[in-house]
Amino acid sequence: MREIIFDTETTGFDPQNGDRMVEIGCIEMIDRIETGQSFHCYYNPERPMPKAAENVHGLSDVFLSDKKLFAHGAEELLAFLGDSNLVAHNAQFDFNFLNAELVMCGYKEISRFRMIDTLAIAKSKHPGAKLSLDALCSRYGIDRSHRVKHGALLDAELLTQLYIELTGGRQIGLGLADDSSGSDSTNMKPIVQQAPRRPFMAVREHHASADELARHKKFIEGIESPLWTKV
User: Fold this and answer.
1) S-S: 91 plus which of 69, 117, 118, 219, CB 3.0-4.6 Å?
2) Percent of the chain with pLDDT over 70
């Protein structure tokens, strides 16, 4: 199962108001394992960068001025995405911008049936909690100390770890064992490490001694108006 975890940076909040996507970062994962393959690109938005947006991601007009237009890199991006499901945090936001850019240069929108929203998953698991990427990374112990500003590829890398945690985490107790047919890595298979069985111990018999019974009787007799005498 191939999935793409991705994030975008933009000039604002709404492509319908003329905001544009300026960066996209994608991480490939197959069967919940990162493959090491990624896609990352900056785009010239052909419009000024609002200061509020620049303060979030640090991408200035000067930095983006010599970057390619989205239309000139759309085919390369679509080839990387393929027909895989696409995972994003608050995925409606990222899909809105990605599809707006695709439509502007003559491509079809990506079906939202391919969308997996980690924000929706987090809401169902942690109702009422803070659900930003930063807050969830803190909850799951994901190191984000190197994250000074938002960045599409960096955030996609963090989201990949978060997505794994939100959907069950790494499987504990799985290792690799060589198949008897050879030592090649293609012959390696997962094994489940079982905890050793504890030895069976018979129930120990215990009988009170005559001295213990006598001291117990004396103790009971010293209790004033015990409840069991009133039943």
Assistant:
1) 117
2) 81
